[in-house]
Amino acid sequence: MKPKKILSVLMAAGLVFTVVGCSSSSNSTSQNSNQPADYVAGVSLDKPIKVDKEAGTITVLTKINGKYFDEATRHNSVEQSGTNGAKSIFTAFAKPEEFYNALIEIGAKPGNNMTANNATTTHVEGTPIKAEITWNGAGKKYDINEVVKDSNGKQIDFRFGGNLKNALDKNTGCLSCLDSCPVGIISNTTYTYGAVETRKEVKFSGNEDVLPEDGTYAAIIYSIKK
């Protein structure tokens, strides 16, 4: 074999080895970086809530409840052990008091203007709260209005209502409600209490075209709306 041809064969062999070597290394790294299904955006069943004061965010682990792709609900996210634990689009694993304290920690101020007596005529007040959702493989964070459908096409506008005493007394587990609420830690000021279940003014459901399948773990990232 001529010297030039030998050199070409050796160079080609070296290139193949390099590509194979790189590919093997990449696959190994990918496998080593795999996380359990419940580990999403830095939270997990072992640590279901994370506060980042510097970033001004609260991340809460949840699970998609596919029942509410087809049925309406006024419950956005409820802690699993609460009396309303199975009634929300996002089943949460952090308790209302933990969520309340985390909101205080990032500088949010509760409105505390809701009572059982004024609920049907009062819009919740307090610091405006942004909610975004992500899950493994999502590739981005989705705004709450991209993943929860309002039948009237209005925007969900969460406010830090507060309601800590009511939340503890009632034990509903409600973190976030889709109409103004005297029990939920945050709720949607767009509608007054009773708009969904009593007066049938609006229907809320999970957006199946965007959200992953029933039972998928997801993280909701809350922050003060700028």
Question: Nutshell version of this structure?
Answer:
With 226 residues, the protein is α+β, with helices and mostly antiparallel strands. 24% of the residues lie in helices and 24% in strands.
Average residue pLDDT: 89
Number of helices: 5
Proportion in β-strands = 15-25%
Helix content: 10-25%
Count of folded domains: 1
The neighbouring-strand order within the major sheet is 2-4-3-9-10-8-5-12
Count of DSSP strands: 12
Query: SSE string, helix = H, strand = E?
Result: HEEHEEHEEHEEHEEEE
Distance between the termini: 72 Å
Biggest β-sheet: count, sense, barrel?
Answer: 8 strands, mixed, barrel
Q: Given the C-alpha coordinates, what overall shape results?
A: globular
Q: Class by helix and strand content?
A: alpha+beta
Low-pLDDT runs: 2-32
Please tell me how large the radius of gyration is.
23 Å
Organism: Gemella haemolysans ATCC 10379
Domain 4Fe-4S ferredoxin-type: 161-191
InterPro entries: 4Fe4S_Fe-S-bd (IPR017896), YdjY-like (IPR047750)
Protein name: 4Fe-4S ferredoxin-type domain-containing protein
